[in-house]
Amino acid sequence: MTETEWSIQQIGKIAGTTSRTLRHYGDIGLLVPSRVGHNGYRYYDQTALVRLQRILLLRDLGLGLPQIAEVIEREASEIPALETHLAWLRQEQDRLMRQVASVENTITALRGGERLMAENMFDGFDHTQYKDEVEERWGEKAYADSDRWWRSMSAEEKAAWQQQVSDLGRDWIAAAESGIAPGSDEAQALAKRHVDWLTGIPGTPAAVPGGDVKAYVIGLGEMYVADPRFGRNYATGAGGTEGAEFVRDALGVYAEGNL
User: Which of 154, 186, 207, 259 has the highest Cβ tally under 10 A?
Assistant: First the structure.
């Protein structure tokens, strides 16, 4: 191995992914190793590292592996493609920094017993960012109902709802890291909380009378694993999709037994 070549274990650790994922990328032709040693070990050079960086960036945008392959092949020139990614990352960085400032201001106000200013609390929280996707999946009425519900809430109600979401995500991660089984009592209690939360959101199939709640819950579980935008909410310290897979499996068990 040279100074400009890394083993699959090294790349997995550096990139926050797993050797299994990298092997899968290689098997489907998305990230072929630069060479394979006589012992079967896979090694990657700088060109492969740049390609992996692009793959992970596109995955964070929510693209599936087939779409990622198409984009990379279409945008063969690396520098312009990375410049486009960089522009998006800077926009996302700005949005996240505005969220950080909003939350810090809320904490300061709460600690000081000050009056919360609703207009300052949700800078960077754009609940409309998934509008097109929601309408495509579940129809315009679904988005309209959920949007009306969100706008009707007071600042305190919105903050409480966001805290509920945060608590649920934290508890899922803790459960996944504890090593309990998806079908255990603890995991199933979390799954019930999750379903109760979903049924409280107007516009979702889980909240519509007569809706196919079971299929919706199972489908969401699969989406948590497939879509990094949602899967990162359940990312454990080990990284990868293990946390999202735990949530998916627990929801699946709950749905089969209770919905």
Answer: 207
